[in-house]
Specification:
443 residues; alpha+beta; 13 helices; globular; binds glycyl-adenosine-5'-phosphate
Length: 443
């Protein structure tokens, strides 16, 4: 639903830039596309990997008490019975008998009227399960039904003991996973915001229930600070505190940011109590409780979850970064000249450093420099068009630094580094260039 933060023009511009410059485009486009599925192109997948790597570094690699997991997308279907997805993961739907449109009842302003055509001739609302079904094995019958996972966290609960024992972890500790999730969303919409196939980055933190709220507050703060470092502020980020909680949950918040269609959920931080491990203990018959050696007692660990979508992170970053700079480039008597620029944080920009020879005569030198730097940064070499055009190309994909190798470079062994945001240029010795860029590209 549109709100005061909605900016449909920005969405159109982003969708068009994403397609034109190879960030994101519709899946199976030559076949007319496939609603709710998106492909990431060359710049998109560089950025996607960078977003995932940054999260992984922040959540796993720089912490002693978080372990990683890479589980399968399809697993024993009883998992989804235990988690409640088979019985409860559904939306209430109604069909319009006049225009045949299908609607989610909770999203209709007036549940008796079709929002598409105004007809009152609607079917009785019925439950529509969001799990994606498949079959495993040679026979396609009910006994061989399996599901594509609807969230990446369930295997973390199922593998709780295996990870804990293998990694010799004691409570409190967490397990993180980045991976695909699938939901048969009724109305995929708002570009990649609500897709049917998407990537989640989830971390489940297991702790003693007595300390549950302490850890909930800790993770809430950690995650908010993370987004602050990525350029979100009080202007475009807010916290939604859930008042209606699942019966097992003690607290839940959503980190919401401004998307082009208005405010939307980016990440959830949830106190899930002992629900998940208890359910999987019950359904599997394996006791997933934990013996606390320090206090000589057995407990069922409480779970604090942080869960965010990669696709939503990218959309939020792109929307926050998009800018059109008119005044800086308009010359008298000339038509308005718009510089489209993505002010992306350097750590997630698809290209961090572009190497541009001033003239094609210098291509070999600039290319060789680019090759050396590829080991340390995401780099691109571009020799076509005027320097101005090449800067524009890089601005549009959010490249924070352009390095120009010019004729002077042959003598002074230095290059000109141009900053995307300030457009200031600085002469830097080639031997200092790596340190100089590393100093700028930190988190
Ligand atoms: N394990 C908890 C869980 O999955 P969720 O709120 O359903 O909770 C968590 O999803 C995050 O996954 C969301 O905050 C969002 O970033 C992302 N997400 C959920 N559904 C999505 C969809 N259909 N398309 C894209 N991202 C989605």
């Amino acid at each position: 639903m549109a709100d005061e933060a909605s900016n449909p023009e920005l969405m159109d511009k982003l969708v068009s830039l994403c397609k034109r410059r190879g960030f994101v485009f519709p899946s199976s486009e030559i076949y007319g596309g496939f609603n709710g599925f998106w492909d990431y192109g060359p710049y998109g997948c560089r950025m996607k990997r960078a977003v995932e790597a940054l999260w992984w570094k922040e959540m796993v690699e720089t912490r002693d008490n978080i372990e990683g997991l890479d589980s399968t997308i399809i697993a024993n279907p009883t998992i989804w019975k235990a988690s409640g997805h088979i019985d409860q993961f559904s939306d209430l739907m109604t069909d319009c008998k006049t225009c045949k449109a299908r609607h989610r009842v909770d999203q209709m302003d007036d549940p008796t009227t079709c929002p598409a055509c105004g007809s009152k001739d609607l079917t009785e609302p019925k439950e529509f399960n969001l799990m994606m079904k498949t079959f495993v094995g040679p026979v396609f019958d009910d006994e061989h039904v399996a599901y594509l996972r609807a969230e990446s966290c369930q295997p973390i609960f199922v593998d709780f003991h295996s990870v804990r024992v293998a990694a010799r972890q004691k409570l409190p500790f967490g397990v993180a996973q980045v991976g695909k999730a699938f939901r048969n969303e009724i109305n995929p919409r708002n570009f990649t915001f609500r897709s049917r196939e998407f990537t989640q980055m989830e971390m489940e933190f297991f702790c003693d229930g007595d300390e549950g709220m302490k850890w909930f507050e800790y993770w809430k703060e950690q995650r908010i600070n993370y987004y602050k470092k990525l350029g979100f502020s009080d202007d475009n980020m807010r916290i939604y505190v859930h008042e209606k909680l699942a019966h097992y949950a003690k607290a839940a918040i959503d980190i919401e940011v401004k998307f082009p269609f208005g405010w939307g959920e980016l990440e959830g931080v949830h106190h899930r109590g002992t629900w998940d491990l208890s359910q999987h203990s019950k359904f599997s018959g394996e006791d997933l409780s934990y013996f606390d050696h320090d206090n000589h007692r057995t407990i069922m660990p409480t779970v604090i979850e942080t869960s965010v979508g990669v696709d939503r992170t990218m959309l939020a970053l792109l929307a926050n970064a998009y800018d059109e700079d008119v005044a800086a480039t308009k010359k008298e008597g000339q038509e308005e000249d718009v510089r489209v620029v993505l002010h992306l944080p350097a750590l997630v920009a698809p290209i961090q450093v572009a190497f541009l020879p001033q003239s094609k005569k210098l291509s070999e030198n600039a290319h060789a420099l680019c090759k050396t730097f590829e080991r340390y940064f995401r780099c691109e070499f571009d020799e076509t068009g005027s320097i101005g055009k090449r800067y524009r190309r890089q601005d549009e994909i959010g490249t924070p630094y352009c390095v120009t190798f010019d004729f002077d470079s042959l003598n002074d062994n230095a290059v000109t580094v141009r900053d995307r945001d300030t457009m200031q240029q600085e002469r830097v010795g080639i031997t200092q260039l790596r340190d100089y860029l590393e100093g700028k590209i930190g988190f």
